[in-house]
Specification:
alpha+beta, 7-stranded mixed beta sheet
Length: 151
């Protein structure tokens, strides 16, 4: 698997982001969806990666710099064709390594509280994230959980 910085211009990546957004809106009320669209992911404080096997897109993930010591994981998504193959684990490991290289002291994320997000929460728990209160501009929301990891 090759994980590379992506400029979000390729059709396969655009389709995966649309799949991600669609899934978020299917499982959460609109006011509780914090997933970024293509324009949001192109902001300067965000680095976006895509994971590939030859010309097959496996998944994606992003890292948003909240400040010089704190990053936020965004847009973690595995292609529906490649679920349960370890794609998300490898992307998450990559993001954590980059956060450490940037000397962040903490890495946080927001994900859904519903059953459909259980696999994601389990992944983050296995990687050392623990539940926390809202961070950055987030507020308490019954459809969200917040997790953080000290680096």
């Amino acid at each position: 698997m090759e994980i590379r910085v992506d400029d979000l211009t390729g059709d396969k990546v655009k389709a995966l982001i649309m799949e991600h957004l669609s899934g978020m809106f299917e499982n959460s009320p609109p006011e509780s969806v914090h997933a970024l669209n293509l324009q949001g992911l192109k902001k300067s404080e965000i680095t976006f990666w895509s994971a590939w096997e030859q010309d097959e897109l496996l998944g994606c993930g992003a890292l948003k710099e909240l400040d010089g010591t704190h990053g936020e994981i965004k847009s973690m998504r595995t292609s529906s064709l490649h679920l349960r193959k370890g794609v998300a684990s490898q992307i998450l490991e990559h993001i954590i390594a980059v956060a450490e290289q940037r000397h962040y002291k903490r890495l946080s994320l927001e994900t859904g509280s519903m059953e459909s997000f259980k696999a994601a929460r389990n992944l983050y728990e296995r990687s050392g994230f623990h539940y926390c209160s809202p961070f950055a501009d987030y507020i308490e929301d019954p459809y969200s959980v917040f997790m953080t990891k000290e680096l």
